[in-house]
Structures are given as structure tokens and as C-alpha cells.
Design goal:
Protein name: Galectin
Strand content: 25-35%
Number of strands: 5
Largest sheet: 5 strands, antiparallel
Organism: Globodera pallida (Potato cyst nematode worm)
Domain Galectin: 13-86
Distance between the termini: 35 Å
Pfam families: Gal-bind_lectin
Oligomer: single chain
Order of helices and strands: EEEEE
Shape: globular
InterPro entries: ConA-like_dom_sf, Galectin_CRD
């Protein structure tokens, strides 16, 4: 399994994963949100075309502390999952 590391990329950042994702593959992200009122960030793992295989949106706003997960296909965005940080 090859390891690909990118440090301090410009934002927004786009990058192709060589040979796609295989069973057992991992994507490890480490970072911080920008200062400001939004207090959120998002990561999209895109498929072919406009498909978003996985949308991860951690939200750190006051009283929200939620991670939102979703995906988008030709039919549009699907029902999002929300997981609160207790």
C-alpha cells in the first residue's frame, strides 16, 4: 500500500488518489478550521462525474458540535446523517 502525504496544501484543495480507493484503504486528515463565525470545514471524496461518494462536514459552531455525512449521485444529494459530539 503506497503512502501519499501532502502538507500545507492551498485551499480549496483537489487531489486525485492514485489507482482509486481499494478495500482496506484509509484517508487520514489532520487540520484546523479557519478562524471566523463558520467554524466548519468539509471534505468530499468524489467519484466519477459530479458524484460525491462521501461528504464529511464537521461543524463546531456553538451548540451544534455535529458531524454531517452525505453523498451525491446523479439523483442529487441523499438524506444526510447527523452525529452529535456528546
Amino acid at each position: 500500500m503506497a503512502v501519499q502525504t501532502v502538507e500545507n496544501p492551498p485551499m480549496p484543495f483537489r487531489w486525485s488518489i492514485d489507482h482509486g480507493m481499494q478495500i482496506g484503504s484509509e484517508v487520514i486528515l489532520n487540520g484546523a478550521t479557519y478562524a471566523g463565525q463558520q467554524k466548519q470545514s468539509s471534505v468530499n471524496l468524489n467519484g466519477q462525474g459530479d458524484d460525491v461518494v462521501l461528504h464529511v462536514n464537521p461543524r463546531f459552531k456553538f451548540l451544534e458540535d455535529t458531524i454531517v455525512l452525505n453523498n451525491r449521485s446523479y439523483a442529487g444529494w441523499q438524506k444526510e446523517e447527523r452525529h452529535r459530539n456528546k
